[in-house]
Fold this protein.
Amino acid sequence: MTPQEMEARIVRYGDLRPCKTAFIDAHTPGSNQKENFTIIGGGVSESPDQHVHIRDTPGFNIGAAGQPPKCRNSLHSHRTAEVFFVLKGRWRFFWGRWGTAGEVVLEEGDIFNIPTGIFRGFENIGTDYGMIMAILGGDDAGGGVIWAPQVIEDARDHGLVLGRNGKLYDTKQGQHLPDGVDPMPLLTDAELAAFPEPTTADVVPDFVARYWDLMALSDRQPARVIAADGVLRDRPGFEVEFLSRGSIPDTPYTTERHEVLMPMRGHWRLSWDGGATVLNPGDTMAVPPGIARSLTPSMTGEASLYRVRNTDDPAGLTRRL
């Protein structure tokens, strides 16, 4: 594969194109400064303005959320896996019907495999603009967002209406639901009762992995983070590994799986028969199957990288509480 063909499979951090109208809370005070990025696959955006960098999916989607301090993402649930790791900043994740059942604070490099079937939200509690990277289960992640009723009501008060077709309509811009399209109904009390209310102690031990623990585990080989035999045991249709300077393969390797490389720290040199490139923190690269490759940190100092591969597991319901 030529360098030009491989470069087309890289989304550079500096080239990310945000969407500020991706979700129903885009006008709601406290959430109206969010930026959503769809890197691989269409993600779960509800806006036609969302730019998709790489449309072909390897069995999962890659996205990101960027937020200034004190900005939050409203309470919602997913039908498939949602995994975040913190690229920049300090973030508080919270969950439950009203966001008060439990919470955890994640620092840079920490990863959270959020249980399916619970309402969750997050906010940047740092002092600067923050970024979290996301892995979403399945090729088609669209239509997978279920909003808490108060989120839909607050959005309507600020001019945004979500249709049953999963699309947003901005009444402030003169948009209205098309004929034959009803508004998204609110969940009933009976439906809401089916959503668990786990405590922090229920969630953190089995669903959160800390960066410095993964650095220690990857001293001699890649740390298995999300897998049937991983630190966070799960089978969501993809596997996540963590690599540091001490876990680099001695020789080129190949895999018949799709592989996505997401550097966390340091600059990583990827070489293959036909070329080489350097990946930087925040870059995302989709490496096709069957290509022999070598991966090495290109400079001294701290280096870490998340590696995601598709599996044969169905991208359906993952770990629930």
